[in-house]
Amino acid sequence: MNSQLKRGTLELCVLSLLCRGDCYGYELVNRISECMQITEGTIYPLMKRLKDNGVIDSYIVESQEGPPRKYYKITESGREEKEKLLSEWFGFVDSINALLKGDNG
Amino acid sequence: MNSQLKRGTLELCVLSLLCRGDCYGYELVNRISECMQITEGTIYPLMKRLKDNGVIDSYIVESQEGPPRKYYKITESGREEKEKLLSEWFGFVDSINALLKGDNG
DNA sequence: CAGGCTACCTTGCGACACAAAGTACCTTGA
DNA sequence: TCAAGGTACTTTGTGTCGCAAGGTAGCCTG
After folding, report:
1. pLDDT tens-place string over residues A6-36
2. d(Cα A93, Cα B93) in Å, to the nearest integer?
């Protein structure tokens, strides 16, 4: 899969998932990789950026199945950011599709 | 506009336009910038990459309105590449929208 | 000949996906 | 008891590529 396409949408995917409930990083990797190829080396740096920007918070929860999990929770500013990205995404798709439309192969 | 979103789609836009007829670089900038912000610093390096990859060819045409124009023409392998990118694009949009779908705000 | 449009090209920077490697916890089974 | 394998987080380095900025050069008008 074209890795360049993912740029700019991964953040939206993560925020969208977190809107529905807190997740830990490893879980996010598994859930997102159901629909696009993704690895931990992508998610963890992204989560750090998002936290630095204040759109998510995190907290640690002990686990019986392995090391402690770092759960991420979306903030109020994160929800606003998600709405912004969502409308940007739909607008972008529309404008690309419009440009591609005159295409007869 | 989110510059990250453009990644991976610019090539498709250019190839799609060239499928409908030869264009020169400056013209491509103008036509594409009708639907997304783009500058020459983006297009010219991209055209060079595309030519190096053999998906486009170029030829020079004199102009009465200024310096000579370098026209770009899509190759057979470029048309195949375009078809590949096109289906990748639609598949990508579908999978992102599917992931976003469970989203209740 | 200055100013402005057309047209091309290059350099340098920054953002970010991702491979790779490291740390550490748990359970299972020989 | 100790390897093996799964879970989970983190960091480092590399490569791609959009884009601002700056340069060259042709054409036309006043």
Report:
1. 988 999 999 999 999 999 999 999 999 988 8
2. 8
Which nucleotide has the least CA–C1' distance to B6? D18
Q: Model-level pTM?
A: 0.91
Q: Pick from A30, A35, A38, A96 the residue to mutate for testing the B interface (most B CBs within 10 Å).
A: A96
Q: Where are the domains of chain B?
A: 3-97
The alpha carbon of B49 is separated from its chain's Cα centroid by a whole number of angstroms, namely 11
B79 CA to D25 C1' distance (Å):
34
- A54-84 pLDDT, tens digit per residue, is 999 999 999 988 899 999 999 999 999 999 9
Q: Which residue, A69, A47, A105, is CA-closest to B84?
A: A105
CATH class of this structure's domain A3-97? mainly alpha
> Does residue A82 sit in helix, strand or coil?
helix
Which whole-number Å values give the CA distances from B47 to A53, A74, A81, B39, B58, in the listed order?
A: 35, 41, 34, 13, 9
Residue positions counted in chain A: 105
Residues of A in contact with B12 (CB under 8 A): 96, 100
Preferred mutation among B49, B96, B97, B101 to probe A, highest tally of A CBs within 10 A: B96
Helices (H), A20-75: 25-32, 40-52
User: Are A1 and B94 a contacting pair, CB within 8 Å?
Assistant: no
